[in-house]
Each structure stands twice: as C-alpha cells, then as structure tokens.
Amino acid sequence: GGGSASGIRALIRGEIDICAASRPLEAQEIQQISQKFQSIGVSFRIAKDALSVYLNPRNPVRDLTTKQLKRIFSGEITNWKAIGGADHTIVVLIRPPNSGTYLYFKRHVLEEREYTKNAITIPTTVKIVETVAANPHSIGYGGIAYGKEVKLCRVNSIPPTSENIRYDLYPISRYLYLITVRKPLGVYRKFIDWIISSEGQNVIKQVGYIPLWK
C-alpha cells in the first residue's frame, strides 16, 4: 500500500520490527538506523521480481526497448504511433515517490531523468493494473505478481519469464527484501528462515514472484 519508503520509515521510528521492501536501504536510512539503534540494519533477499511493464491486451505493441521506455516515461515520446501502435496519446501511469518501484524505475530505466509532467500518479500497483486493463492507451509498471489481467511487455525483446528474471536476462529484474534494524531473533528469525526455506520459496512461487532458486 504505502510503498517501501513508508515501511522503512515505520521501522526506523520503532513502530514495527520488520518490513518488506522492493529495494535495499538507502544511505540516509542506514545513517538514521545507526544513530537510533547503533546498527546499520539487516536486509534479507527473499525473492526475485521483474519490474514488469504493463500494457492493455488490445494494444498491438508487444516489445519496447529500455531506450523507448525512457523516452515514453520522460515525455519525449507521447503517441503510440511513434512505436508501432495506434495514433493516440500515451497515458503514462506511475507510482508515488515513496514507492521503491518508482525509485527503481527512475534510476534503472529513466537513468535519473524526471518523469513526464503528464504522468498520472496511481497509489498502488493493483490500481495501475486495473487502469491499464481498462484503458487500451495506457502504460504502467509494477511487480510481475500483479500483472495477470494485463499484457506484460517484452523489454529489449526479452519476456519476463521466471528463468529470464532469475538469471538477470530480463533487463529490469530486482530482488525483494525483508529488513530489520538488528540481527533478528526469536519469531522474526524463524519467519525469515521459513521464507528462504524450500517451503517458503514455494509460497513465493505460488503468489507469482520468482524463488531465489529452482
């Protein structure tokens, strides 16, 4: 719901003991944890994910390069016709700035360019999927597990399959994390151990993410 930054802020404030995130801790967050807890925080990789590009199933476009995505989401390309689609304005959907997905896409696809001012900010990935599924002229992004109702775009001609994601062949793959401020003990340690066990990784697979190993 609130994004990776919201969970990490709650962790630093001491409101929660463990949080999930789609990115590692930032340097500023590590500094805050160090000042408050005399620790640098502990991050556990629990799964792999594709930052998938969502297209409406009726959109004839199936494959975009990272350069084209950069130009679309920065506002340089504004019409689907320029990339083999219909003669219609591209409706760009993005997550809010507190989202780890927003930051990852900005760094790894936009290469720190600003998002287009015409982008529509959608609070959750679920809502992005719903909007793309309803609007054939829209484009959005998010985790692969959410994209069952939309078409997952190939990026640089590479589809976001499990194998391509696991071995980093798909260009915008990432890890998902559980984060604690100190070395976890008790139920938290057991929970993390379970998630990275074969049983936990099977659950990861069932919900649509990519296990760390086969």
Which structural class do the helices and strands define?
alpha/beta
Kindly state the mean pLDDT as a whole number?
95
Could you state the order of secondary-structure elements as H and E?
Answer: HEHEEHEHEHEEEHEHH
CATH topology-level fold name of the largest domain: D-Maltodextrin-Binding Protein, domain 2
Largest sheet: 7 strands, mixed
Topology:
Elements: H1 4-13, E1 19-21, H2 27-37, E2 42-55, E3 63-64, H3 66-73, E4 91-94, H4 100-108, E5 120-121, H5 125-134, E6 138-143, E7 151-152, E8 154-155, H6 162-166, E9 173-180, H7 186-195, H8 198-206
Can you characterise this structure?
The protein has helices at about 5-15, 25-35, 65-75, 100-110, 125-135, 160-165, 185-195, 200-205, and strands at about 20, 40-55, 65, 90-95, 120, 140-145, 150, 155, 175-180. It is α/β, with parallel strands linked by helices and about 210 residues long. The protein folds into 2 domains: about 5-45 and about 175-205, D-Maltodextrin-Binding Protein, domain 2 (3-Layer(aba) Sandwich), CATH 3.40.190; about 50-165, 3-Layer(aba) Sandwich (D-Maltodextrin-Binding Protein, domain 2), CATH 3.40.190. Strands 1, 2, 4, 5, 6, 7 and 9 form a 7-stranded mixed β-sheet that branches. The longest helix is centred in the N-terminal third of the chain and has 11 residues, at about 25-35. The chain is globular and about 55 Å long. It starts with a helix and ends in an 8-residue tail after the last helix. The mean pLDDT is about 95.
